[in-house]
Fold each of these.
Amino acid sequence: MGVTVLFTVFVGGLIIGLPVAITLGVSSLVYLLVAGIPVVVMPQKMYAGMDSFVLLSIPGFILAGKLMNQGGITHRIIRFASALVGWIRGGLGLTNIAASMLFGGITGTAVADAASIGGVMIPGMKKAGYPLDFSAAVTAASSTVGPIIPPSVPMIIVGALSGISVGQMFLAGAIPGILMGVAMMITAYIISVRRKFPREPWGGTSEVVRAFGGAFWALAMTFLIIYGLLSGLATPTETAVVASIYAFIVGAFVYRELPLRKLPAIIVESAVAAAGILALVGFANVFGWILVSERIPQAIAEGVLSLTQNKFLVILIINLVLLFVGMFMETIAALIILFVPLQQLAQAVGIDPVHFATFAVLNLMIGLTTPPVGVCLFVCSGIAREPLTRVIAAIFPFLVTNILVLLLVSYIPAISTWLPTVLMR
Amino acid sequence: MRFASGLIGLFTSLARFGTGLSFAVLIVSVLVQVTGRLIGDSPVWTEELSRFALLYLVAFGVGLSLRSGDLVNVDVISESLPGRVPWLLRLLSALITVGMALYVLPQAWRYTVIGGMQTSPALYVRMDLIHLTMFLLLLILALFGGLRVIGMLSGTVDGRPHRPEEE
């Protein structure tokens, strides 16, 4: 009875447009009242969910990304990406993807990537003769590599939920992120050859070196973060704050494009974005506690295992569930709700926790570009002023590519586990 | 109408100040920690202070994140409905938010009072001052939900997420 009420209120809340964090809170509250459990559990579990050492790094990483974003990295990264791959057929499409990979290593968020790179690349591609639907689709699809290539807020959340170190999770995402980017470039190239898209003139090695010099200080931040975490010199929170200071110095004094008068607003906006994520974590922790006390994770694991104990099929089932949920639900909310129940199932068939966490995040990232709820899809179709339906049709080849990469990462554990094993032994 | 927008502006400014201040405390605390590590004498209280600062950051920032849509709005279905239905659903959502927060508020106060019996291990702060963040969070959520209701009824806002860059 209680669980039925919990899920009915939850789904009802989403349908009427209640924010996900509030829906989680309201459904948990109604459950507590129906089950006769004291409501004081709610603030207690919210506190327990938010009072986490790992989550402390989230505002810092968001701030570092926003400072870099406002500090003039976008055009430097696009120039560097263009110098590298712009000369190939469909060069601007490839540049778009390469820029997303580099940008993702700095800001770590897909929506910021879609908005920043899309804002420059979509009009630029239109001017160069690329169709708008392709331009919007390639921007939206490639923006999803951002939260897979480190740093990554979803990977931090996974760290908090599973106890896996953030450094390990960041490293686990590196190869799958690069693989996804390269696979999308191949797809964009094939489409470009078939549709005879133009190429940019080759600027020579000197242009690559010059463009690299321009983007160097921004790109170095990714290495600073990875080094900070791997060397054991700093905790994730310390790394995030030091990265923010670094981003401030680069934006204000090296690139000189960060408007200092905007600094207070950037700090507050980063804090508000972090507050939203953490409040979501707090309410979801109450919801998650109810799921665990109702033995839902065990029930899911037992239900699936009664159908099959084949690891291959279990991975497929987990991916199908995540893909379906990701189509309708926001990534972080889906991650918080589903991670623990599905992790139990994954462990039951002997899937490595780091491997499971990586393909779960990758899977939910694909959801950012699938209808009906694909935030990056909305952002890019908005920038291109192109009907959503046309962008959805154009993104289809990239969706297929990303699902193929997801299957590779799901069935070849070494893609995600090799780097953390070698570097964090 | 002017009263409603003035009220929204006042509370938004106060919440922005509280959120920014909490974040500043977090950043300074972590920097003290890093500097201390470099000179070989890291104070023990910095980690605790940064965790507490984060809780205050969430408490002060939750209303602003409700306003900006950072609490994650999945409104594809509700916004695609005809006529005034989306507006009514936005109003209903705001009312539910206020109702939920106000209902839990006395229990959050109870939780705060329970904290009075404990002291934090490093800073020796009474934990009711930290548990208070849950009370504040719900209070501020109710306040911003209420401001949205007032704003919608007075015609000042339409209840959609409001991004600062749109200002």
Note: Chain B touches chain A through 59 residues (CB under 8 Å).
Amino acid sequence: MKTIYLDNNATTQVAEKVLDAMLPYFRDLYGNPSSMHTFGGQVGRKIRAAREQAAALIGAQPEEIIFTSCGTESDNAAIRSALMAHPDRRHILTSRVEHPAVKSLCANLSRQGYRITELPVDKDGILDMAQYERALTPDTAIVSLMWANNETGVLFPVEKAAELAAERGILFHTDAVQAVGKIPINMKANAIDMLSISGHKLHAPKGIGILYVRKGTKFSPFLIGGHQEKERRGGTENTPSIIGLGRACELAAANMDTENRMVLLLRDKLEAEILARIPNSRVNGTRLYRLPNTTNISFEFVEGEAILLLMDDYGICASSGSACTSGSLQPSHVLRAMGVPFTMAHGSIRFSLSIYNTEEEIHFVIEKLPSIIERLRSMSPYWNVGDQACSAQ
Amino acid sequence: MWEYTDKVKEHFLNPRNVGEVENPDGIAEVGSIACGDALKLSFKLDENKRIKDIKFKTFGCASAIATSSALTEMVKGMTLEEAMKVTNQDIAAYLGGLPQEKMHCSVMGKQAMEKAIENYKGGPPTEPATQIICECFGVTEREIEQAVRENNLSTVEEVTNYTKAGGGCGGCHDAIRQIIERVRAGAAPVARPKLSNIQKIKMIEETIDREIRPSLKKDGGDIELVDVIGNRVLVATRGACATCKAADITLKHFVELKLRDFVSPELVIEEVTT
């Protein structure tokens, strides 16, 4: 059975060109970039090149790029560093819809005595900027807001938010793991101090990430050890993955415009057809400020895990914000923060596309999904055929 | 991804008895859409007061649908007294086990069956006055007590897995802890630790291999474990046993006693033909 992979916000396929760039550094060029000999030193040169490639993608300077092990490490390093930089400040400003890498860290810091403000979002997943501004206090050590939401794809106006924080001398971090490579980012033109990137979200392998730290920002390392990354992140470099991530950044920079136009067309087609063919379905989150590859659709009166498993039977991979898939008993915190009604929240499915999806695949999903939903609804005690009259938006 | 047994998957993909019975004798609805799963059960009796027809409609995940389907298959043909005795563990065992986090689906099936029978008997369709402990999922004290007693639960996490209570804001964890203590203090002390289905089946197999098979083989006989449903151990006789007139005596007096000794005193042996 062919796999139709529409779960690219979870992880992506490693690009063929990325893999090709990496392989020599597993097999032959295994030297340690810190070594004095030529054998190791040549790897060091490749890492420098990768740093330049990564910097170019986001309009940064190479020395502002710190390679880490993943997005979660980048988030942890950024927030903890900010707290170290301002030991007198005890307030962290974030949102209710952050990824667990930020959300759980903040919950943990709250138990250590830090004051956390989680800004709410409206039903479309949008922040109230006036409320944001009011929440910035002299006691605020750092603001951490995600650039793009992993579940809905909704974009936060982080550049504007960073400006407001900078005016008040407050550090600003953004978890941009879903945004980098999908929307243009230029660090020269914004006031963001720190930004997290995850390799496996942009066709590089898992286990590699980046923390961008603006020049001049006080930084305390999260991992203390050797002199790697200018003593900002100890630990021998993950050379093949760093080189792979550099190549992935280069590919993203070169192809972002054309590729995203294509992905956007497919996503819009998928979304429009699903909404047209399946009654009582609706999109979660605003469709105005959104990643080009993501759509989060709720199907009323059915449960997400059951939808996923029936799609799985056709080889279709997606994910759900339902309680049953999260390992907890409540629907996703993002959908709850948006006030998505329970009838809808349990039946939410996230489709996230990539450049590797084809029109044929999208057609296949459009063709199969209506009967899957219909089948589950025929088993649901809440579904009456008459309900179709009150079809959703 | 959850590790579902093939039987759970099969009942999810091909659920039996979906729908609503016309002019039902008993009907019940448990769960709610807010909680993420709900089950509507209706049944009709035949002239011998056995369940002739039973149907379900379920909103929920794969295991909620599979347990509903399994329940209807299990109780069809039973008297209401027999159906009352089907425990959530029996339902889970019928499906070859459920992930711990999904045991609440089997509890939902059990509750729906009880409520539908109450409804038939003309009993009040509402819960008897009992306090709601978990506000997030509307779980009552009585439901938690019952789950703790019937499944020998000892931690809040287990109670959450079986009833959902405590799975939301967490504000009721202390109250749940107190219920666990109270029920366990009152419960007859259990001599052995409660076995999971997998553990139980493993121990039964080991006991057959070590304690039973060697003796049977001496007489040219053998048995094969076919299934374990709750405490019912289904075996098929093989070799000389298959044709031996005294085989059922051997099964009852030798095999069953051995299994009760080594595994659990509640086990009952049953011979099936395969």
Note: The interface with chain B takes residues 301-306, 309-310, 313, 322-325, 327-331, 342-343, 346, 378-382 of chain A (CB under 8 Å).
